[in-house]
Amino acid sequence: MLSKLPHVGTSIFTVMSQLAAQHQAINLSQGFPNFPVDPRLRDSLSRWAHADQHQYAPMSGYPPLLARLAQLTQDSYGRTVDATTEVLVTAGATEGLFATIQALVHPGEEVVILDPSYDSYETPIVLCQGIPVRIPMTADFLPDWERIGNTITAKTRMLIINNPHNPSGRVWSKSDFEQLEQVMALHPQLLVLSDEVYEYITFEQKHISIHHYPRLWDRVITVSSFGKSFHITGWKVGYVIAADPLMQEIKKVHQFLVFCVNSVAQAALNDYMDFVDVQELGAFYQKKRDYFRNLMADTRFELLPCEGSYFQLASYRSISKENDLEFTKRLVTEFGVATVPLSPFYKENTQNQCIRFCFAKEEATLAQAVERLRKI
């Protein structure tokens, strides 16, 4: 059988999590928390599970939740969006990314991806016969605007950006967005798909969103995640915001991909937003970041800057000359800690002897993991 995705195998996240389970290792690889969900959200889910909320939700989303998301966008970024035409609840951020690319990228059109990059970007481009063009970021994991400017042409349909950035934890500056505006002014056909799933998890520097730039709104699609914000990755609920003409096309794909999203989960999330303040997430995760970094100071790893997300990059140059896949596998088998190598985030599997830790874990888990890492 001729494969439509001959280059695609099992994701590195699945590989490392399976390896962790096989060796009973502490799993700091895959990006999911291991602490309990807020009881108020759990109780809300239980109430709606016992209510009459088990049939299809409207295709775009549960209307009260759509209204809340429009208000959240206004409160967070000062952008007014129409809840009925410019907001779409999706089956996780991944479905939002997939539906957007399928709807807006045509065969032969190029899509620029900045490496290292999340592995869900390229596949939907290939499936719609677009052309993924992957270019490296700077050595410190920030956008290389000279290279971006030289890469985008009249054939480029879309630029995918990710801020705060997975896997590096870096965040964009005001200067980065000013340069993005300049690039878009030069290329009127260009759309931007802005992956902002970690938008509320930033630390010393407050998150700057593409929502802050009104001149770009008509050409931007943003993707957000309840899973990341509320520690419920298994619920697979996210949302997309885009101007009405773009959203009409995205909805055409969404309705035939999943039609609608879990109705009980949407109702529970709508109620929960009465109680939760997303602006407090940064402080919550900063404590975890600082705790983990302080523990790691006694190891041989060199920690790189972490300004957002719940990921911490670390260099192992002073420990080993192994490639990162070999090194991370040895961490599991010999030391009982699972992490993620950085090379799979690059088209060419670039080796820079860095690995990624997820610190969205209970303190006891982090302490136990670092105790093992100190033995390296």
Automatic annotation (TrEMBL):
Cofactor section: pyridoxal 5'-phosphate
GO CC annotations, alphabetized: cytoplasm
Domain Aminotransferase class I/classII large: 25-373
One annotated GO molecular function: kynurenine-oxoglutarate transaminase activity
Short name of any one Pfam family annotated for the protein: Aminotran_1_2
CDD domains associated with the record: AAT_like
Keywords: Aminotransferase, Pyridoxal phosphate, Transferase
Keyword Transferase: yes
UniProt similarity note: Belongs to the class-I pyridoxal-phosphate-dependent aminotransferase family.
PANTHER family: FI04487P
Protein name: Aminotransferase class I/II-fold pyridoxal phosphate-dependent enzyme
Organism of this sequence: Flavobacterium stagni
